[in-house]
Fold:
Amino acid sequence: MGNLGATEIILIIVAILILFGGKKIPELMRGVGQGMREFQNAKNNVKSEIEKSMNEKPQEKSTDTK
Structure:
């Protein structure tokens, strides 16, 4: 993405203010935060399931034949 200087960051902030308005930005950021939190929770759940399955002992095969 490259290095962003102070001027570029200010221009991005001004563009966001123009597009969304000052009242919509907190709602937008709240939605972004909730999305990131849900993603982190899902990632942690998948990780714990993988670790849980790796720590389980393999089931022994039954040699009972009749």
Residues 6-55 form the longest helix (50 residues). The CA atoms of residues 8 and 14 lie 10 Å apart. The mean pLDDT is 84. The radius of gyration is 25 Å.
